[in-house]
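Q: Give me the 3D complex with FE2/S2 (inorganic) cluster.
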Amino acid sequence: MPEIRVITRDGDQQSIVFTPGTTLMQAITEGGIHELQALCGGVCSCATCHVFVDPAFAARLDAVSDDEDGLLSGSAHRCEQSRLSCQVRLTEQLAGLLVTIAPEDE
Ligand code: FES
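A: Here is the predicted complex, encoded as structure tokens.
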């Protein structure tokens, strides 16, 4: 099974096994990391699943949609690596992906 690597808010790095086809948000949550509120359940309307994705993997990710872009614009922590994890579909090509949980917005 492929894995991703997740850096939590306290700086710990954990490896998580994922099933291709699931979202990054699901993989992180089901992997036992409970730092993402994911309040909307993954329908791209809350931005509480914000993560930073290693730029080395950027070309393998689906493009940011207008809805995702709009929600990310509301975060004080947005940067070039920002994604909403519920909008990132995991594939075999993303094995080894390094993700950092973004700080919570106030
Ligand atoms: S869980 Fe709400 S936008 Fe991702």
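A quick observation: The mean pLDDT is 96.
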